[in-house]
Amino acid sequence: MKNAIPVYDICRLSDAPSGQKNQEFHVERFGSYVSRHPKSLHLSHGHSFYHMVLFTKGSGKHTIDFTQFTVKPGQLYCMIPGQVHSWNFSGDVDGYIINFSDNFFRSLLLRPDYLEQFIFFSGVSNDGVIQLKNSVLERVVSLFEELLSQSELVKTNGNTDILRVILLHTFLLIDETTAKVHSSAVAGSRQMLMKNFRRLIEQHYKTIRLPKEYADLLYITPNHLNALCQEMVNTTAGELIRERVLLEAKRLLINADLNISEIAYTLNFKDNSYFSRFFRKYEKISPEDFRARFVTTK
């Protein structure tokens, strides 16, 4: 399958000389990062890595998976591999950018799913955009500055564990200031169940569309699953499944090399007519018009 949306790896975006690029981690001031990529950042693109941007100066718009956010100082963006985004800045911007691979923590942590505990790495656009309070912002900036200085030392000593430790400290600090406080173990178990449901959707959205099938995988009843979704995210289980299918449809539609039939096949619809009806029903626009509107706005 051809892919018209560029998907960047860490080495391609790094400022290090060829042969000295780290395939698992990169940290840089955002101003210099933008100046080196003046055009590519404004076009829709994806990453094969985790991506964090902290703004300390500037304004503009940032679109993540077709949801647009207003850029402000003190704002932190956290994205996971596979998300599609683009920038549209107004004037000069600055801050910090951190890119790290899915494997970056695996040699340090026993739990391969460790990052999944942080809601800002859920892959849901709204969850990954955080406006930091000034007191927290100062601490995060200090940690990012430490990452910058330590990354220079790593180039000579090769020991990246200090980068991992500082980055984990940053995650825990952000999580501490943004996570909802749950007063009981029951609330914690509901949160874990919701997280498992989202994980199952991510794994099976192309082939499993019914809430009952997900409820069976979670060993609960469909009514229990719907009540959980209403309580935790104020929507139904079926809507969460549809949102994920529609998101992938949008990502594929901005790929000019794929026709509607190919997209329908990729998403496991029985034919392109059924896919088109599904898309129009929930997006109030045809797949063809969505594609045309997206292209004309770039």
Automatic annotation (TrEMBL):
It holds the Pfam family AraC_binding. PROSITE patterns: HTH_ARAC_FAMILY_2. This is Helix-turn-helix domain-containing protein. SUPFAM superfamilies: Homeodomain-like, Regulatory protein AraC. Keywords: DNA-binding, Transcription, Transcription regulation. Residues 195-293 form the HTH araC/xylS-type domain.
